[in-house]
Amino acid sequence: MVLEPVPVEAETFGASKIQDFTWKDLLDLYACAVCGRCHANCPAHLSGKTLSPREVIHNLKEHLLEAGPALLASELAAKAAASSKSPGKARPRPRPRPNLRALWRPNQDPT
Known about the structure:
This protein is mostly helical. The protein is built from five helices and no strands.
């Protein structure tokens, strides 16, 4: 008797790309005040590991500022293409987006 392999769909956990975050997750990046309390109390950091939650958040902010304009452009292009397919349908009024650059000032020292 030969057993057939069972197809298993791979589960994904966490986020591997900036596109995997929701808008709320991305906005929460800017809620971090970079005070260092998470860093000072992180069990991994206290045990001598190189993990720093503060640096993870800081690096995500920098990456979002670099990748954000392209993400917004592709999203707007997709919405424009979808609206051109159904011209008779009324488009909802777009919600204003927060100015992420105004929320985080790069000249501030993250340490």
